[in-house]
Each structure stands twice: as structure tokens, then as C-alpha cells.
Amino acid sequence: MAVGELSNYVTLSAVLFFLGVAGVILRRNPLVMLMGVELMLNASNLALVAFSRAWGSMVGHIFAFLVITVAAAEAAIGLAIIVVVFHRSARVDVDDVTILKG
Amino acid sequence: MLHHAVGISAHYPLLLATWLLPLAGALLLWSTGPRIQAKGAVLGTTVLGAAFVTALLSIPDALRAADGYVGAQQPLVTWLPGMSLGLLLDPLSLLWTLVITGVGFLIHVYSIGYLAGDRAIARFFAYLNFFVFAMLTLVLSDNFLGLLVGWGLVGLASYFLIGFWFEKPSAVAASRKAFVINVAGDVGIMLAIFILFAQLGTLSYGGVFAHVAQLSPSTLLAVCLFLFVGCAAKSAQVPLHTWLPDAMEGPTPVSALIHAATMVTAGVYLIARCHPLWDASPDARAFVGVVGAITALVGAILGLGQWDIKRILAYSTMSQIGYMIMGVGVGAYQAGVLHFFAHAFFKAQLFLGAGIIIHALGDEQDIRRMGGLARKMPFALLAMLTGTLAICGIFPFSGFFSKDAILYGVLEHGHPYLYFIGVLTAAITAYYMFRMLFVVFAGQARTPASVGEHAGHAHHAPAWLMQLPVALLIVPTIGIGWLAIGGEQSPWARFFEPIFGASLQPLARLGMSEATSSLVVTSVVLLGIATAFFVYATPQALRNAPERLQREGQRMPGMLTHAFYFDDALDGLFVQPTRALGRFCAATVERDVLDGGVHDITVGARWLGHFFRSFQTGFVRAYALVLALGVAAFAAYYVLVGVTR
Amino acid sequence: MLFWFLAVALIASAVAVVTAAKPVYSVIALLAHFVTLAVVYVSLSAEFLAVTQILVYSGAILILFLFVIALLSSGVDSFEVGPDRLPKLPMPALFALVITLVAIVFSAAHAFAHVLPVITPTSQLAVGSAAAFGSVATFGAMLFTSQLLPFEITALILMVAVIGVVVLAGDHATLTPPDHERLRAIRRREREAILREGEAS
Amino acid sequence: MITALILGPILGGLLLFALPRTADAAARACGVVLALAALVVTLTGSTLPDESIAWLQRPFIANYHVGLGQGLGFWLVALLNLCTMCAIAVIKVPRVRDFTALMLLLEGSMAGVFLARDLLVFALFWDLMLLPVFLVLIGWCGHATAAWKYLIYNVLGGLTLLLATAAFGIAAGTTDVIGHGPIPVLTPTWAAWIFAGFAFAFLVKTPVWPFHGWMPETYVELPAPMVALVSGIQSKAGLYGFLVIAWVLFAEQMHAMVPVFGSLAVIGLVYGGCMALVQSDIKRVVAYSSLSHLGLILLAIMSGQPLALQGAIVYMLAHGLFNVALFLGLGFVEVREGTRVLSRLGGLGVSNPRLAGALIFAALAALGLPGLGGFSGELLILTGLYQAGDYWQTIVALLVIIVAAAYMLRLFQGTMQGPVSDDLPQRPDLSAVEVLALIPLAAMIVLLGVNPSVLSSGVEPSNAVIHALPLQKERA
After folding, report:
1. What is the CATH number of domain A5-96?
2. Closest chain C residue to A62 measured between Cα atoms?
3. What ipTM was predicted for this assembly?
4. In this predicted model, what pLDDT tens digit does every residue of D140-153 receive, in sequence order?
5. pLDDT tens digits for range C60-111
6. Nearest CB neighbour to B618, from listed A25, A28, A101
7. Is B335 exposed, middle or buried (0-12, 13-18, 19+ CB in 10 A)?
8. Rounded Cα–Cα distance for residues D91 and D87 (Å)
9. Where are the domains of chain C?
């Protein structure tokens, strides 16, 4: 690992993270939004692994593993909700679901 | 702590009895009134009789001169080191006590007859007893605090009695007006008390009069003037007299006792009692003298314009008290008190006589509907005639001596203008009194046929019940004058020597003697009577009396019918502005400022709520955007902080 | 040199996920993203994570996505119809936004470079040997000894997820069995309403 | 024993719920007995030692310290018990049992306020006082606005009091300071803010002029027995606070604020007087009259002159007595006539002489008839004010006395005298119980009027107040 390479990894994860965010904000399809969330989670995983590699301690990996399980659980629940909400409607569009507004 | 609630050690049981008996009577009648009805009247009268007897018995106590002061001193209760209540019976308060209980007793007897058959007669006698108690509290107190307490209670008693027939809205309004003006008087006295207590630290007469020298002229004047405000309210002096004519709403015995004999003279008593204060401030004396004279004149003039027999007597009372205040004000204390003594009897007699007439005519009070009663009611004629002669000051009657004493005293104390006003008033008094006499008694009867001494509307009390008191009153109306004959050595002067002895001011050297001034006054009075005779009592005038009276009614000048617009002035200056301020406060301050303010706060809160509610758009992506912005802000913050450190 | 190649791949696949027209395309892009990521993990000598990434992410979660896409797209011609309610950002503005974002992050990273530790070269152990850094053995040892608590938590999270899904998506006894005919009629009416709405705006 | 004064009524009130819902007479009887017991304990308990139980240590020392003593607190608790006894005896509302329970809760909490020797206990009971009144406003009265207005104003006051108490505790280390112990010295800024908290709470509770928004509606809506207690005694809690807490613990701040509070008092005095003159609702007349009287008492307290202070104490008790009598009387009128509007009332005196007697007696005491309690208090206050050099305030107060005479008589004559409105049915006069309930009040009013020294000798406000006050204010 070259000097300063870690900052590259950090930058990369930041970019990926913001792409994830863009995905969540811009797309109206809940599935793509979930994928955006997955992207964000993976970005953080990347940073974790990079730092763990830099510090030379395995704890980063454990935590990344934890993040993966969380991502899995989140995806499962998210998809279940999407199925329940949209399985009857004609189109799958997040903007239709505004029942909970103030 | 509660044990020494009201610890009174009785040095003078008779004095205490005189003072407390009427109160006991009042309380008894109040509590058992509805049940005992007519018997209540007899009970009230006997209580008053007992009080009169105990007053007579305590005369020796009053005259006993001991260790430097005259009279009986009976301490009651002390509020604070400087403020204590107590009773004092000395010649001055003895005279008033005797008049109050004596005339009071006669009027009680008269009331049994006058109010027989009235359902609430027991309540009436309770009020009368309470009034006598209140007046005794005022007169017997040995300090200004007790005086103030008596002052208020007397005001309350007059409120009760004026508003006795409280179904009548006019009586209700009159009683309220009398009480409020009386409270205005109380306020004046309270202010004087504060000044005295602040300066001298004590309120007892002895303490105050001993240290009069310590008071600066300005504070002395202030005290005198504020005390005089109290007198003006109570004794119906010019600015604050508007309640007296309305007070005629009450039953006639009430007018006789309160608005003729006793209550309205409280002002005279106050000035006589505080003569050391008045001696020490000449300009206060001048002011009071002038107000007294003006009141006398105004009262007499207004007396001309009245058609209601009781209102004529009310204005004549106001005028006569103007005389007394003028006399006592300028410093002729003995003359003023003498006139009070005489006036108490002949004015009570006049009112009771008028009561007999009103009672006989079935509560008719307008003299235009009376007339020709001489033949039908000889006793009433006798009563009214003797009273009128006394009030005009014709020789053998008491009025002659007391009025001339005042007028000469005024002259002696160097007030020629007041003397002139006094004489003019005497003439006008003679005119309107005889005007009443002629209109009521001379000429054809303008009353309904079935009228007479004994007929009257069905009332079961024997006629003598009402006539005996009047007859008894005629005796002092004639006799009192003789007490004052003999200048310095007259029994009257010697009786008041211990009180007013020390206060003889330098007397102006006068051109004419007292006899000549009496002659002047008598001639002026006779002139007045003559004019009244020509206007009202000539055979030709008597024939077309009704039309002439009618014409006189229309031509009555506005000033007289509206009593110089004093009433409207007082109302406009004080009552309406206060009410307007109240309405202003209610409308603007209360509704707009206070409630408005709170209302605005609530509206603001609701608007804020709506504002933030709009943030909840319901779009998932909008929330995600806000979240992202938050994260970005955090990141930016740490970046900036990091960079700058 | 490998890093830059992988970085570009990652970014490209991420952009593809976000901007794909059909959800299926974005799933495929996501698959590419995960695989590249696994490679990066290997380069950072995190073998276990690389394998997990492949197994869990691309194996399980993506398949799940595909199931849902399949389920929802029956009878739905396109996922997104109708006006977009968020303010439309013109393409150049979006592009500029991303560029400035990357610039900021890049400069920030370099500003902190002196703070970050230098990645120390591993002790040239062969990849995959048991005692090497990041090997599965050490990962397993740590997981079950010093880092036992995270392990417990993961178990808990997964259980919660399972129960949640069962509750959410399971067919409740109370629900009346959907009448397919009625369902399709509702869908048709909604589609026409939306089309009408589309023409109206 | 002293705690029994506080907890006795409260627990007694709760025990009342054991009675069946419709046992009105029994509930009233229990209430009267409880209040009477409390009164007896108070009167015989003036020599009881204070009771103090350690409570808080950590943020600051606060212990449950209650004491009776001989001063103002003693007389106010005695007044409280007496008035509660009389008020409960004449309750005529739906659900008498629950109402009596709430009255007893109110009595207990107010006793707590007057007996508290610790600021925290004082604040606790201060807030507890609101509960029963609010519940009655909600439960027994039609308009909810009065309830919410009352709650908002008074809870705000209660909150600032609690904050100030806490701040005081932290700044001074202990809150066990009312009426005894050394007066802690606080830094000026702390003292200023803490004083502001206390002052606001007292101003709202009394109420003083700008903060009296809640008073008219509450007094009009509450049933007579409750409003008698609220206006008669709860308003005294604010004045008690000024006298015993503000003057003692914050003497300098009090001096600084004297012109402000003094002018508020004078405005309240005049404002209340004029407003009472134009009100059409009989209870509003008495409400604004009590605003005026309380303004006078506050003025006396602000003057700090010993004579005025003693007058303030006498007048506080007198005002408590005649206000309770007035409201009970008006309650009887309202029960008999069914309406409170003056224009529709009239002529009740003919068929109800005893009610007329009671009302005129209370009205006269209220307008300060010499010989009754109101007068002696007023006279002492005004003499003290005059001696303290406040000439203009004295003159204004005197003028308001005249206005007081006018509106009190207008009230009495409006309801009792004048032509009988014969469309209303024949109304029964006061029952024996009602007369019996008013007699102790009348007796105390006369006793205060004839011999206020019987009270002021035992009363000298806690000596801390006296030596904290400048005897002769430096008059410009």
C-alpha cells in the first residue's frame, strides 16, 4: 500500500456513498432507492476495510461483517414493505404513497 | 390571644347604657322584627325612652369638673398606641345627646302613629334605634377615630332610613346618593386624621388640642378644610348639599329626626368640638363662614321655588344650618350651638306638623293641592304657625334669640358682608315660610272633600299619638330663647363656659348694640311676611288662587326648578367621568389589550404550528434529501473545522 | 495501478445502478459493483469479507431484488409513470454537482492525508495462509473470542429481519383472498386514470 | 400535628369517595367536620414546634419543614379553615361529594402554602393549589375557556416559581429559609433573576393589574363556595409571598421594584374600582372589587411602612372574610334567581329579608364602613401610607373608597331592592344552615372592625420582615 493510498480509498468510498445518496433521492422507484442504500452501505464497508488494512487490525472486518448482516436484514424488510405497499397498485412510484403527510 | 377581645372597664355605667341601649334595641328589633311587628314599635320607643332617662341621669357626670378637664371620660378599646376609642361626656356632647335622645324619643312616639299599619314597622324602628346609636357614637367619642366611626355609621343609618320604602326606585337612588356623598365626607375626615396622626401621633381630642401650636399654619389649614369637607357632606353645605332634598323620599319622621334635628348638625358639632383648631387658623374660619353664608342664601332662594311641602322644609333646613355653620365658623360658637338647639325643636315641630298634614291628606305633599286647611286642621295650623314664627325669628320665639345671636356674633367677629347676607336670608326665609303657610292654610280648600283632622285614611293609631309629640315640641320652641338672655351671665353662656370660655377672640368695636341689630332683623323679617301676605293671602288673591298658583308654576325660572344645576354639575363632574373610565377600561384595556394580547399569542402559536406542518410533505424522497443535506452539513463542518485548526 | 482501474469500475457500475432505465438493468449493474468490490477487498487482503460479499450480497440480496422485481412487474408496463414531483435538475447541473462533490472530497482527503496512518505493507505472507492478516482463520478466531458481542448482535438482527418479513409479507388469514378478476379490473381502471391524468397535465 | 393541617383535609377529601355518590348531606357534613377540626387544631396549635423531615441533599438541601408560629401564616390558616367550613356547609352543586373532596384538597394545599417553611415545599403546594380549581372549572362549569385561561396563567406562575426555587437552592445551597435562619446572600445577577421568578408567580396569583386576565372568567364561572375560597384566600397566597418571601429574602431587589409594583398596584386599585362600577354581572362586580382591594393591600406591602404592613395584614384577613361572605351571598342569589345579570335582578329583598341582611352586611364591610373589618384595615393602611410619604397614593386610594361605596351599593340595590320583578317564582329565604354558615364570618368581621389590635398584637409580621424594612423611606 503506497503512502497516501488510504486517502484514495476514503475518497472513493465517499464518492460511492454520495452516488448511493443520489440514487435514493433522484429515483422514484423504491427498488432502485433500496439499491442506492445498498450502495451507501457498501461504500462504508469499503472505508472500513481500507482503514482496517491501514491499522492492521481485524476489527474493521468484524464491523464490516456486521454491516453486511444489517444490509441484508434491511433489504429483506425493505422489499417486504415494498411488496405489501405496491403489490396492488398499478405503478410502483414512491411519490404516490403520501398518506403519512402532516 | 383572643381572650382580651373587647375589654371595657365601666367607669360610667350610665354613659355606657345611654350609648349601648339603642344598639341593643336595634339588634333586637332586627332579629325578631318580622315576628313581633307592631309591638316592635313600642319596644323601640321604650328603649329610646330609657336611653333618654339615662342621659338625663348622667348630666351631673357631664358637669363634674375634675383634674383639669370637664366631663366623664370612659376609655373603651385601643387599636394602637396613638389610636384608641373612648367616650367623653362634657357639656357640648351632653347637649347633643339630650337633643338626640329627647327629640328622638318624641319622634319615636310620633312614628308609632305615623307608620301604624306598615308591614315593616319593626324594621323602621330598628333603623331609628340604630341611627340614635350611631349619632351617639359620633357625639360621645373622645377622639377623631371614634368620630369617624360614628360619621360612617350615621351615613349608613340615613341610607337605611331614606331607602326604607325600597320598592320605590326614587327612594333607592336617593339613599344611594346620600350614602355616596356621605362617604365623600368620610374621606375628607380620614385625610384630616392621617395628617393629624402623622404630625402629632395621637388622635384623641385632648392630645390634639394640647399640641395645636406644633402644627404649621398650612397643615392646620389643611386639617380644618378637610374636616370641613366632612361637615359640608354631612350638613349639606353648598357643593355637597344635593342629597338633602332627595332625602325627603324617606318617611316624614325620618326627615324630622335626621334631616332636621340631629344628623345634619353633625358638622356644627364637629366645628364646635374642634374650636381650638379653628381658633388657631383665621382663614379657615373665614372660609367656613363664607360657605355657611352662601349655603344659607342658596337654601333660602331654592326654598322659594318648591311646591312639595317637605322640600320647602328641607331647603329651609339647609339654610338654617348655613346660619349655624356661619355662626360657628366665624367663631360665635355659643350662638351657633344655641341656634342648633332651637332649630332642632322648631324644625322637628315643622316636619311633624307637615307629617300630620300629609298623613291626613293621604300622602299628598304638593301644597298646590292643599289649601284652606285652617278650619279643618286647627292643631296642625297651631303647630306650623308657631314653628314658622320661630324660624323667622319673631320676638318671643327661640328663633329670634338664636338667629340674632348669630348675626350679632358675625358682626362682632368682623364680617359685615356675612351679616348683610344673613339679614337678606332672614327676609327670604320669612317670605317662603309664610308663603307655605298662606298657600296651605288660607283660601278655599283645593283638597278632596272627605279630609279632616280625624278622618284621614283608615289608620288605627289614635290621633293624639301624633299630636302629643308636636305639642311637647312647642314648649321648647318658645322657651329656649329665654336661656340666652343676659349676655355673658346668661345660663347658656355659663353652661358652655368650660368649653368655649378660653376661645373668645378679640371682638370688633361695633357701632350698634345687639338690641339695634335685633330691631333691624325683625323689621326686615316683618317686611318679608308682609310681601308674602300681599302675594298670597289678600282676599282677592285667595279667590283666584288655583289659576295664580298655576301661572306661578309655569313662570318658575329654570335656575330654581333645577336647584342651580348643582345636581347635574356633581353628576357631570364626578359620576359620569368615573363611569366613562370604567367603560373605557372594560372596552379597550380589558378586551383589546389583555384578552387581545393573549389571543394574539395563541394565534401566533397556531401559525407556527401550521408553518412547521408544511414540512411534512409526505414524499419519502424529500425526507431523504433533508437527511442528505444534514449529512453534508456535518461533513462540511468537520472539513472546515479540520482545515482551519 | 489496479486500484485506479477498480475505482473506475466501481464508480461506473454505481452510476449505472442509479441511472438504469429498468430496475433489472440496475440489478445487473449492482452485481458488477459487488464483484468489483470483492476484488478490492482481496487487494486489501480481506479474503473473508470478499467471499462474504459475493455470497451474501450478490448471492442472496440481489436474488431477493430480482424476486420482488418479478413479483411487482407483472401487469405493470413501466415502473415509473406520471409527472416527477421533485424539481427536475437539468443534466449539466447534475453533472457539475457531482464533479464539485468529488473535488471537495478529494481535496478534503488529501488535506487529512498527514493525519491518516500510512498503510504498512503486510509481512509478505502468501495470500491465504492461515496466520496472514485478514485470513479467515484469524477472522474466525476473533469473531468467536474477543468480538463475540457483534456476533450475537448479528444473530439478533437476522432473527428480527426474518420475523419482520414473515409478519409483513405473509398472507394474513384475515385478508380475503384477492379476487384476481377484481384485481385486474382495479389495475385497468387505475391505469386509465393515470393516462387521462397524464394527458390533462 | 402541623402536617395534619395539610394532609388531614387532603386525605379526608379522598376518604369522602367511600361515601355513596348521592350522599350529598353526608359529604357536606364530613367536609364541615374536617374543616372545623382543622380550625380547632390551628387555633390551639400556635405554640406547636415546627416539623422538619430531611428531604433532599444532592442539588441543594431541602427538607419538608412546616411550622405554624404566631405570625401572618397562623392567621391566614385560621381564616382558611374558617372560610372552608362555612363554604362547604352551603354547597349546592351537582355531585356534591366530589365537589367537597376538591374543596378539601384546595384547603389542604393552601394550608401547605401558608405553613411551608421551605421554598420547595412552598412551590410544591403552590402548584397543587391549581389542581382542584382547574378540575372544578372543567367539571362543573360550562365554558372551558375560563378553565384553560386559569390553567395557563397559573401554571406559568407555578413554573417560574419552581425555577426560581431551584435556582435559589443551587445559589444559596439550601431552600429551608422561609421565616427562620440566616438570610443567604446571593450574587446580584442570580438574586435579580430569582426575584423575578418569585415576583411573577406572586403577581399572577394575587392577581395584580396586568396579570389578572384569568380572574374575571374564573370568578364568574366557579360555583360560589369554590370562588369564595379562591378569591378570599388563594389571592392571599400571592400577598403572603410578597410579605414573607420577597421582602425578607430579596430586600434590595424589592426596593428597586417598589416604584414599579407600587404603580401597578395603584393602577389595579383605580382600574378595579372603575370596572366594578360598570359591570352587568354581579359576580364580576365583586371580582373587580377584589382586584381593587388587593391593589390596596399590595400598595401597603410595597410601602414597607410598619403601620401599613400591619394594616395590610388586618385588611388581608378582613378582605378574606367579607369576600367569602359576598360570594356566598351572591351564590344564594344566583341559586334563587337563576341569573347573574343585574338588569334582570331586583326586589329579592322583599321576600328574602335575611339574605338581604347578609348581603348588605358583607357589602358594607367591603366598602369599608367604619366599625367593620374593612374599615380598620383600610384606615391603618392609609395612615401608614401617609406616614411613609406616599401622599398621592393615599389620595387616590381615598377617592377609590368613594367609588367602592357607589358600586357596592349598586350591587346590593340592584339585586335586593327596587321594584319586585314578579315574573320570577316566590323564592325561599335563607335556610337555617345558610344563616349559620354566615354567622362566624360576620362575627369575625365585627371583631376585626371593633378591635383590630386583638389580631395585630399577635401578628407582628415575622420579625425578619420588620428589620428588613427601612422604617423611614428616604423621601425625595
Report:
1. 1.10.287.3510
2. C143
3. 0.71
4. 887 778 888 888 88
5. 888 988 888 888 876 555 555 555 555 555 666 666 766 777 677 777 666 6
6. A101
7. buried
8. 7
9. 1-78, 127-170
